[in-house]
Amino acid sequence: MPDAVDAVETPTPRRKPKPAKREIGGRPLKPSTLMMGHGYDPVLSEGSLKAPIFLTSTFAFESAAAGKRHFEGITGLREGGAEGLVYSRFNGPNQEILEDRLAVWDGAEDALTFSSGMTAICILMMAYCGQNDVIVHSGPLYAASEGFVAKVLSRFGVTYVDFPAGATRAELDAVLERAKAQAAAQGGKVAMIYLESPANPTNALVDVEAVRDARDAVLAGVPIAIDNTFLGPLWQRPLEHGADIVAYSLTKYVGGHSDLVAGSIAGAKRWMDPVRALRNTMGGIVDPNTAWMLLRSLETVELRMQRAGENAAKVCAFLREHPKVEGLGYLGFIADPRQQDIYDRHCLGAGSTFSLFIKGGEAECFRFLDNLTIAKLAVSLGGTETLASHPASMTHLSVPQARKDLLGITDNLVRISVGIEDADDLIANFAQALEHV
Ligand SMILES: *Cc1c(COP(=O)(O)O)cnc(C)c1O
C-alpha cells in the first residue's frame, strides 16, 4: 500500500497560465477586457484573485536538466529564450504578466519592461548600435533621448542624422540617403530610425507611414522605433503604420497617477530578442512592486485617458477664445494641412497634453502659473491631476536659444497636461489665473 503522501496526486508544475480565450463568439476581446485577467491564472497562486507581488531574487528549478535548459535559452545556445523563471534580473511573474498585457495594447507579439522610460530607450539603442553606426531620428526628441545619442553613443563613434517632425516622403528619402552615405564613410551601418511623435513640447507629428515607405525604398531591414508616450496606448498605434518597435515612458499615461517611474518597448519577438539579451546582462528590468502598480493602472488606462481627452477638448475650446491667449498647440485644432493629414491617418484622439501660448512672455506665463490652484506646477504629464510647466525655463532651459527658436519653444509657451478632474473646475481655475496675466 503506498503511503498517504505518495497517494496525493501532484499536479504537473505549470508556470504560465493556459492561454486564455482571447475571443468571444469569434470576436476578439478588447484590451480593456483583457486587462482584468490576461496572463494570470489564480490557480497558480492559491486562488488569489489579484497577482501577488513576487519578492524573490531567484527561482527554484524543477530539476537540474530544467535548469540547464533555461540557461541554454538565456545564453542564446538555444532559440526562444528561457522557458521558465530563473533569476530576477532576467524576469519575474509580475513583470511577465505586465509585459503580456502591454503587448495587447499595441497589438505586439512581445514586450519588455524597464525601470524607467530612459532605461528602455537607452538599452534599445545600445542593443542595435555598433561602433561607427548612424542613428536617424526625428527632431525634437525628449531631451534625454537626444542627449543619449549625441553625448553618450557618440563616444563609440555613433553619429546621427535628424529631420524635422513634419518631413515629407521626398525629404525623408533624401535624409535616409544622406545617413546611408554617412554610415559608409565612417565604416558603419544605419542602425535604427528613431521617431518621437507628437514631439514635446510642440506636438509636431511625424508621418510614420512615409518613414516606413522611405525605409523600404532606401534602407530595407533597418528597424523603425517610435516613442509613443504622448498618445499611446490609446490614441496612436504606430505598429499599424509601419513602426517595428514602440517605446514608452510608463511613468506618464500608462502609470497615470504620478506615483511611479517605468518604461517599456513592444514589437515582434525578433526585434525584442537582442534588447532582452542586453537587459539580461545589464539589468534595468522594472521591479515587482512597480510592475504590480502598473497592472492596477492598466485596468483603468482607457477610462482615464478618455476622460482626460474629453477634459482637454473642453479646456482648449475655452482657452482658444480667451483674449489673453495667443494660440494653442493642441492636436484637436491643427492649422497646418500637412499636420492635419498626418493626424487623420495616424491618430485616434488628440490627447490631453498641449501647449498654451499666452500673449506676452516669461513674466506673463509665470503670473499665470503662480495663480493656478487646481493645476499643479510640475513637469511630467499623463497623471490623474492637471500639471502645468514653462518649458523654456524648465525642461528645455539648457537648449541653446537658436535651437529653441527653431523648435518653437518660445518664452510665452506654457505646457499643460490635463487630468481627470471636473472640466468646469479646471476651466474656472484657468480663467482665474489668466485674469492675473
Ligand atoms: C518622460 C518621457 C521619457 C522618459 O521617461 P522616464 O520614465 O522619465 O525615464 C521619454 N520620452 C518621453 C516622450 C517622455 O515624456
Describe the structure.
The chain has 437 residues and is an alpha/beta fold. Among the domains are: 113-259, Aspartate Aminotransferase, domain 2 (3-Layer(aba) Sandwich), CATH 3.40.640; 301-434, Aspartate Aminotransferase, domain 1, CATH 3.90.1150.10. The protein has 14 helices and 14 strands. It has helices at residues 4-7, 31-34, 64-74, 93-106, 117-128, 143-152, 169-185, 208-218, 269-282, 288-320, 337-346, 362-370, 401-407, 423-435; strands at 23-24, 27-28, 110-114, 134-139, 159-164, 190-196, 224-227, 245-249, 263-267, 325-329, 353-358, 376-377, 387-389, 413-417. The strands form three sheets. Strands 3-9-8-7-6-4-5 form a seven-stranded mixed sheet, sandwiched between helices. Helix 6 (143-152) links the parallel strand 4 and strand 5 (159-164). It is globular and about 75 Å long. Mean pLDDT is 93; it is low at 1-14. Pyridoxal-5'-phosphate is lined by residues 116-118, 142, 196, 200, 227, 229-230, 249, 251-252, 261, 263. Pyridoxal-5'-phosphate (PLP) binds next to helix 5.
